[in-house]
Design a protein that fits this description.
Mean pLDDT: 88
Low-confidence stretches: none
Strand content: 15-25%
Oligomer: single chain
Strand order of the largest sheet: 2-1-3
Largest sheet: 3 strands, antiparallel
Number of domains: 2
Number of strands: 3
Helix content: 55-70%
Distance between the termini: 53 Å
Radius of gyration: 22 Å
Length: 93
């Protein structure tokens, strides 16, 4: 009975280590790209930095930050998000 208990502890311990490794790896992969995006909407400009696993995710995230601050309401936010960024620049981490 004691052998089964020790074996179960080892299995659980290894499982926890594997789970932590997977979580750490996925966290690092999500923030590989960082960009500063400047949006101009209704004669106002705002620049925000955002990270993402890909270029598109990082840029879209920064656009959302900018448009939430520049636009007034949901409809304007949607119009702002359809606007091309004034500039996109890779950021150094």
């Amino acid at each position: 009975m004691a052998k089964q208990s020790n074996a179960m502890r080892w299995i659980i311990g290894i499982g926890v280590i594997v789970l932590l490794a997977v979580l750490a790896r996925s966290s690092f992969q999500q923030t590989q790209q960082e960009y500063e995006v400047c949006m101009t909407f209704k004669n106002a400009t705002h620049c925000a930095k955002a990270s993402g696993a890909t270029y598109a995710e990082a840029v879209r995230s920064a656009q959302e930050i900018d448009c939430q601050l520049l636009a007034n309401g949901r409809d304007e936010t949607m119009v702002c998000l359809d606007t091309q960024p004034a500039s996109i620049r890779a950021s150094q981490k």
